[in-house]
Amino acid sequence: MDWKEIKTLEEWNSILENSTKRGQVILKHSTTCPVSANALQEYNDYLENTPNHDLDYTLVKVIESRAVSNKIAEDMNVKHESPQIIFVKDKSKYWTASHWAVTTEHMSAVLN
Predict the structure, then answer these.
(1) pLDDT tens column, 74-94
(2) Alpha carbon distances (Å) from 96 to 10, 52, 76
(3) Structural domain of residue 34, as residue ranges?
(4) pLDDT > 90 fraction of the chain, expressed in percent and rounded
(5) Dist. CA 70–CA 5, nearest whole Å
(6) Looking at the 3D structure of the chain, how many domains does it have?
(7) Is there a contact between 47 and 2 (Cβ–Cβ < 8 Å)?
(8) pLDDT exceeds cutoff 60 at 37
(9) Residue 70's CATH number
(10) Is residue 83 reached through a cis peptide bond, with omega within 30 degrees of 0 on the bond before it?
């Protein structure tokens, strides 16, 4: 698994800053939701098999890190959903998908 979990607004701000140099992929994950568990499995499968090594990968647990999750939704101007994957480039949302659309195939098509 090649993602790191973030829990603070400082960590999110750092990711936003870094998005000017490298693409950032964020998975917003609910630890209580079966659809989200499936999305996390797809995220991990993508990272094991076909990752784009020019990107950084992050996980945010939406219940445990509510403030961070809300700030991401606000900064990226996206409606909060989980599971939700957001690709951030130059401090802007480049692509997002949620629920059953978070698949290895979808990630490969967009990120590779």
Answers:
(1) 999 999 899 999 999 999 999
(2) 22, 17, 10
(3) 4-111
(4) 92
(5) 16
(6) 1
(7) yes
(8) yes
(9) 3.40.30.10
(10) yes
